[in-house]
Amino acid sequence: MHRQLQEAEMIQDEREQKKALLLKISDFLLDLTKLVFAGIILTGIIDLDLNKVWLFTIGLTVTFASTTLGFYMFKRGSQIN
Asked: Is the pTM of this model over 0.90?
């Protein structure tokens, strides 16, 4: 009985660690999204010799991808009990 209780506690600890890790990754990706988006705006404002179409295309693609992945990780982490 005591051994089963220890195993159950270890499984619960692993779940809590996985949940915390997924939520931390989610926070990181959503922060990265904000930084990339701000970089796009600032680079667009400053007159640099860059192709603006490529800047916005790549920037918005990275922003969309990191946002989607961040919310996916958040959803997965929230579902762990």
From this structure: no
